[in-house]
Write a structure and sequence with these properties.
Helix 2 packs across helix 12, helix 3 runs antiparallel to helix 8 and helix 7 packs across helix 8. It is elongated, with a radius of gyration of 29 Å. The chain is built from 14 helices and 33 strands. It has 711 residues and is of the alpha+beta class. The strands form five sheets. The chain has a 16-stranded antiparallel beta barrel with strand order 14-15-16-17-18-21-22-23-24-25-26-29-30-31-32-33. Strands 1, 2, 5, 6, 7, 8, 9 and 10 form an eight-stranded mixed beta sheet that branches.
């Protein structure tokens, strides 16, 4: 991605490469790996062929994606593992779901609300996101794979199993910055920081972005390391000779030329350049990467005869990559927070759940990174692990705080409710303990919702949180009679809700609280209930068990939720009733196939007002019927879905389901239920899933459902 940042860089003075200093490594054979995004998978194929023929480098240099592959190889990872890692880079992981949902603390999983845009605002004006893409999953993977190796090398890249260098581009000066010491994972992250797509990386006094902007094939860097014979692997996308004469085409060509010109200024010739034939495979196409790897193998096989025999060595065992043992079972003695301004160090350490004076466990550090990213308090996080002067482990939590005041905007479409819009204003840490104050509004053809909330995760202990909500909700669900749409009902709700949360381990949550409010049930033409006002005095308890990896296209995990409510006349309510609503969702992937089951069971006793009846339908539970077709005081439904993932972002599926509603618990029986069959597809996108379903149900009914965006 050659982005508009190049226009900024082109206005800077572009110095020539610094004069070469005496090499600090002994390097007879050097390998240089270029940037190229998804095309960089070809590097793996080249290295496989070289290694099979006894050709192993004495030093490695790389830029951008070449830095990723090069650092993993230099750290000692077997090529079969690197191949698996590269093939794990899917469009869905990078663009559509950049956080592994199951790695979040459960309270953040349940609160997760993806929106189309977030901006910060305050006395200094409006501030936009640091990058288009979220880098949480990317940062975690780099830390997980490369931090132990960098720690074992004592932060000196020359002490890796194979000496390694990479480059970044300083946004302040436009200079090439050589990265040879420090946090190995962070250096690689800086070198692949595509401008505008991913946030820039602070590195000492520098602000670094993609090193490929100024030195995409750093042959000169390998020479500086002392390489006598350099093999360069170039997977850069060539400039298209055809020019579109419109404004977009001309702008793209100008950027391409600026990029190419600055790389030519820093270019040095290699002794052998291997250029895999990747045809039209684009920078951002993370599909069919095995084919890209194979093209790398083919290009390397053709070049073997040009490599001098003196660099062919008898096969030997490579030094394996360092893992947890790199930290030697030492004590975690120090935790320091870097980058915070309004958030206290105590709040951020609490969110990380790291504790000093215990044995350092690397997996705990990775979970700390997940926890920081999953809060709404930070927009960027990193963990640097060092040796303290007392020989204990020192962890540095590097954060970029979320803007203190933000506005989130969400947009979506559903064929039943038409366009949907969401706005949330949020202030963070108003009282110094990580609390959040929210004002939110939601509007669609079905709902109008206005609310305010105070949320905190710490009150009396590390795992006890609280919520106070005030909300007005005008709800207009569709009402059906004998399978025919009659009219929209209308319920106007106003309530104050107080709740406490208990996090019961990583995947379990308990919640209990009290709701005070009213529901005005409006009389509507064709609907058989009178206008009335219900006074609500409701005690409730909720339990959630959730380790589902994704809400849109899960391949593994389970989610169980049960909500029990008691509305009590003795507390001032209009009527007394019990209402229990339980749901189940589970998924299991088998190769490219996935099985998914869903179920819902609703049970009530007492005088349940129509505004609290259960509403069930399609497409998830009973394909072929309308989404809100069945209303009742008791409800039961279940479905089984068989899905196939032809691409990482696409799932096609077939579904069968059955369900119904009843008046009394003793009336429940599957003989009265309605069954249906459906076909559908879901496509993950950065603005939310695109979903298309078509279903057939009994009595000749069928329904088409279309939705896009975060519902």
């Amino acid at each position: 991605m050659r982005l508009a940042t190049l226009l900024l860089l082109s206005s800077c003075a572009w110095p020539a490469l610094a004069q070469q200093s005496a090499p600090d490594t002994e390097c007879a054979l050097g390998i240089v790996l270029s940037g190229g995004g998804a095309r960089g998978a070809a590097h793996v194929g080249v290295l496989e062929v070289l290694e099979e023929n006894g050709i192993r480098p004495d030093c490695v240099a790389g830029a951008s994606m070449g830095a990723v592959v090069g650092a993993l190889y230099a750290a000692g990872f077997p090529l079969v593992e690197i191949n698996a890692m590269i093939n794990g880079l899917t469009w869905r992981n990078i663009y559509a779901e950049p956080m592994n949902r199951a790695s979040m603390p459960i309270i953040h999983r349940l609160e997760q609300q993806r929106t189309a845009l977030r901006v910060g605002f305050g006395a200094d004006g409006v501030r936009f996101p640091r990058g288009i893409l979220h880098d949480g999953r990317l940062n975690r993977e780099l830390v997980a794979k490369l931090t132990p190796a960098g720690f074992a090398a004592e932060r000196d890249f020359s002490r890796l199993p194979i000496p390694f260098r990479t480059v970044g581009t300083d946004l302040r000066t436009g200079n090439r910055v050589v990265l040879s010491r420090g946090d190995l994972a962070r250096a690689v992250r800086a070198s692949m920081s595509v401008p505008l797509a991913y946030p820039a990386v602070a590195w000492g006094e520098h602000v670094l972005v993609d090193g490929g902007l100024v030195d995409n094939l750093p042959v000169g860097l390998a020479r500086e390391m002392g390489a006598k014979f350099v093999i360069a692997v170039n997977v850069q996308t060539p400039i298209d000779p055809d020019i579109d004469a419109d404004i977009v085409g001309v702008t793209r060509r100008i950027i391409d030329l600026l990029y190419d010109t600055k790389n030519r200024e820093n270019a040095s010739p290699a002794d052998l350049t291997i250029t895999p034939q990747l045809d039209e495979h684009s920078f951002g196409d993370y599909s069919a990467l095995e084919r890209v790897v194979q093209r790398g193998r083919e290009a390397a096989e053709q070049a073997l005869a040009q490599i001098p025999s003196e660099y062919r060595r008898s096969p030997s065992t490579r030094t394996p990559a360092a893992g947890e043992e790199a930290f030697g079972g030492r004590r975690l003695g120090h935790i320091e927070v870097i980058g915070n301004t309004y958030l206290s160090e105590q709040v951020l350490i609490r969110e990380s759940e790291l504790r000093v004076d215990g044995r350092f466990v690397f997996d705990d550090a990775l979970r700390a990174l997940d926890h920081l990213y999953s809060t709404s308090l930070v927009q960027g996080a990193w963990i640097d692990i060092k040796t303290h002067s007392d020989n204990s482990i020192a962890v540095e939590l590097q954060v970029v705080e979320q803007y203190r005041q933000t506005a989130d905007v969400g947009l979506a479409y559903h064929s039943d409710d038409q366009a949907q819009g969401f706005l949330r204003l949020e202030t963070r840490d108003p009282f110094g303990a990580g609390e959040r104050i929210q004002l939110h509004a939601f509007a669609s053809g079905r709902d109008l919702l206005l609310g305010a909330a105070l949320r905190g995760e710490q009150l009396f202990g590390a795992h006890f949180g609280y919520q106070i909500d005030v909300e007005y909700h005008e709800e207009k669900p569709k009402f059906y009679d004998d399978f025919a749409f009659v009219n929209r009902a209308e319920f106007q709700r106003f309530h104050v809700r107080l709740a406490g949360d208990w996090q019961l381990g990583s995947n379990h949550l308990g919640q209990a609280g009290f709701l005070l409010g009213t529901v005005d049930i409006r009389e509507r033409l064709g609907l058989k209930y009178p206008a009335t006002r219900e006074t609500m005095r409701t005690l409730f308890a909720r339990y959630v068990w959730d380790n589902l990896e994704s809400l849109t296209q899960p391949r593994r995990g389970i989610r169980v939720e049960a909500l029990a409510e008691r509305n009590e006349e003795g507390l001032g309510a209009t009527s007394s009733y019990w209402r229990v609503d339980s749901t189940l969702r589970l998924a299991r992937g088998i190769g490219p196939m996935v099985l998914e089951g869903r179920a819902r069971y609703g049970f009530s006793t007492g005088d349940l007002p129509v505004s609290e009846w259960f509403i069930i339908g399609g497409p998830e539970l009973i394909p072929g019927v309308a989404r809100e077709e069945f209303w009742g005081k008791q409800a039961a439904a279940g479905s089984l879905t068989v899905g196939y993932d032809p691409f990482s972002i696409v799932r096609v599926y077939a579904r069968v389901g059955v369900g119904g509603v009843w008046e009394q618990p003793e009336d429940i029986g599957w003989s009265d239920a309605i069954s249906g069959f459906g076909l559908g597809t879901t496509v993950a996108t950065p603005i939310g899933p695109l979903q298309l379903d078509y279903g057939w149900a009994e009595a000749g009914r069928n329904s088409l459902y279309i939705s896009i965006g975060w519902q």
